Amino acid sequence: AGLLSKHQSISVETDLEDRSRRCPRGFERLVGHVYGGDQFSEGYASSASSMEDCARRCAYTPGCGSFEFSLSSKRCFRNSQTRPTHEEDRVGFVFCRRAPCPSFKTEEACVGPS
Protein backbone atom coordinates (compact mmCIF):
# COMPACT_ATOMS: atom_id res chain seq x y z
CA ALA A 1 0.00 0.00 0.00
CA GLY A 2 2.95 2.32 0.71
CA LEU A 3 4.09 2.04 -2.90
CA LEU A 4 0.61 2.87 -4.18
CA SER A 5 0.26 5.94 -1.98
CA LYS A 6 3.72 7.14 -3.03
CA HIS A 7 2.65 6.79 -6.69
CA GLN A 8 -0.64 8.58 -5.96
CA SER A 9 1.23 11.43 -4.28
CA ILE A 10 3.47 11.82 -7.37
CA SER A 11 0.35 11.76 -9.55
CA VAL A 12 -1.29 14.50 -7.44
CA GLU A 13 1.86 16.65 -7.63
CA THR A 14 1.96 16.19 -11.42
CA ASP A 15 -1.74 17.14 -11.68
CA LEU A 16 -1.12 20.30 -9.62
CA GLU A 17 1.91 21.18 -11.74
CA ASP A 18 -0.08 20.59 -14.94
CA ARG A 19 -2.90 22.79 -13.65
CA SER A 20 -0.45 25.56 -12.66
CA ARG A 21 0.91 25.53 -16.23
CA ARG A 22 -2.52 25.89 -17.88
CA CYS A 23 -3.38 29.25 -19.36
CA PRO A 24 -6.41 31.17 -18.05
CA ARG A 25 -9.66 31.37 -20.00
CA GLY A 26 -9.28 33.31 -23.24
CA PHE A 27 -5.65 32.23 -23.67
CA GLU A 28 -3.99 29.08 -24.97
CA ARG A 29 -0.67 27.48 -24.03
CA LEU A 30 2.14 27.31 -26.57
CA VAL A 31 5.70 26.06 -26.08
CA GLY A 32 8.37 28.73 -26.51
CA HIS A 33 9.13 32.31 -25.52
CA VAL A 34 9.65 35.80 -26.91
CA TYR A 35 13.08 37.36 -26.40
CA GLY A 36 13.24 40.11 -23.74
CA GLY A 37 11.06 41.23 -20.85
CA ASP A 38 7.70 43.01 -20.75
CA GLN A 39 7.27 44.96 -24.01
CA PHE A 40 4.74 47.43 -22.63
CA SER A 41 6.34 48.97 -19.53
CA GLU A 42 8.59 47.49 -16.89
CA GLY A 43 10.93 45.19 -18.86
CA TYR A 44 12.35 42.36 -16.74
CA ALA A 45 10.99 43.90 -13.50
CA SER A 46 7.34 43.46 -14.53
CA SER A 47 5.41 41.29 -12.07
CA ALA A 48 1.88 40.04 -11.32
CA SER A 49 0.35 38.32 -8.30
CA SER A 50 -0.87 35.30 -10.32
CA MET A 51 -1.14 33.94 -13.86
CA GLU A 52 -4.74 35.22 -13.93
CA ASP A 53 -3.53 38.70 -12.95
CA CYS A 54 -0.91 38.59 -15.72
CA ALA A 55 -3.59 37.48 -18.22
CA ARG A 56 -5.84 40.35 -17.09
CA ARG A 57 -2.97 42.83 -17.57
CA CYS A 58 -2.47 41.51 -21.11
CA ALA A 59 -6.22 41.53 -21.88
CA TYR A 60 -6.45 45.22 -20.87
CA THR A 61 -3.31 46.27 -22.78
CA PRO A 62 -4.05 47.28 -26.38
CA GLY A 63 -1.79 45.33 -28.72
CA CYS A 64 -0.92 42.57 -26.22
CA GLY A 65 -0.99 39.25 -28.06
CA SER A 66 0.55 36.96 -25.44
CA PHE A 67 2.21 36.84 -22.05
CA GLU A 68 4.77 34.76 -20.20
CA PHE A 69 4.35 34.12 -16.49
CA SER A 70 6.64 32.58 -13.86
CA LEU A 71 4.82 31.06 -10.90
CA SER A 72 7.98 31.01 -8.77
CA SER A 73 9.20 34.60 -9.40
CA LYS A 74 5.78 36.15 -10.22
CA ARG A 75 7.27 37.77 -13.33
CA CYS A 76 4.77 38.78 -16.03
CA PHE A 77 6.10 39.63 -19.50
CA ARG A 78 3.51 40.91 -22.00
CA ASN A 79 4.29 40.55 -25.72
CA SER A 80 2.85 42.06 -28.87
CA GLN A 81 3.53 38.74 -30.64
CA THR A 82 0.92 35.96 -30.59
CA ARG A 83 3.56 33.30 -31.31
CA PRO A 84 6.90 32.58 -29.63
CA THR A 85 10.09 33.76 -31.34
CA HIS A 86 12.09 30.93 -29.71
CA GLU A 87 11.09 27.26 -29.79
CA GLU A 88 11.81 26.39 -26.15
CA ASP A 89 10.14 27.68 -22.99
CA ARG A 90 11.93 30.29 -20.92
CA VAL A 91 13.00 28.36 -17.78
CA GLY A 92 10.19 28.47 -15.19
CA PHE A 93 7.77 30.40 -17.44
CA VAL A 94 4.51 29.51 -19.20
CA PHE A 95 3.73 31.12 -22.60
CA CYS A 96 0.05 31.95 -23.17
CA ARG A 97 -1.34 33.60 -26.28
CA ARG A 98 -4.75 35.11 -26.81
CA ALA A 99 -7.11 32.43 -28.06
CA PRO A 100 -8.48 33.16 -31.52
CA CYS A 101 -11.60 35.31 -31.39
CA PRO A 102 -14.88 33.49 -32.16
CA SER A 103 -16.53 34.99 -35.24
CA PHE A 104 -19.74 35.87 -33.34
CA LYS A 105 -17.92 38.32 -31.00
CA THR A 106 -16.94 41.84 -31.90
CA GLU A 107 -13.24 42.63 -32.05
CA GLU A 108 -13.53 44.86 -28.96
CA ALA A 109 -15.21 42.05 -26.98
CA CYS A 110 -12.31 39.75 -27.85
CA VAL A 111 -9.37 42.12 -27.66
CA GLY A 112 -10.56 44.23 -24.76
CA PRO A 113 -10.80 48.00 -24.45
CA SER A 114 -8.42 50.13 -26.50
- Count the strands? 4
Strand content: 15-25%
Average pLDDT taken over every residue = 81
- Backbone shape: globular
Order of helices and strands: HEHEEEH
N- to C-terminal distance: 57 Å
Strand order of the largest sheet: 1-4-2-3
- Report the total helices: 3
Gist of the model:
This protein has 114 residues and is α+β, with helices and mostly antiparallel strands.
Account of the 3D structure:
The chain has 114 residues and is an alpha+beta fold. It contains three helices and four strands. The protein has helices at 2-20, 51-59, 107-111; strands at residues 27-30, 66-70, 76-79, 93-98. It has a four-stranded antiparallel sheet with strand order 1-4-2-3, with helices on one face. Strand 2 and strand 3 (76-79) form a beta hairpin. The longest helix is centred in the N-terminal third of the chain and has 19 residues, at 2-20. The chain is globular, with a radius of gyration of 16 Å.
What is the strand and helix layout of this fold?
Layout: H1 2-20, E1 27-30, H2 51-59, E2 66-70, E3 76-79, E4 93-98, H3 107-111
Antiparallel strand pairs: 1-4, 2-3, 2-4
Keywords for this entry:
single chain; 114 residues; alpha+beta; 3 helices; 4 strands
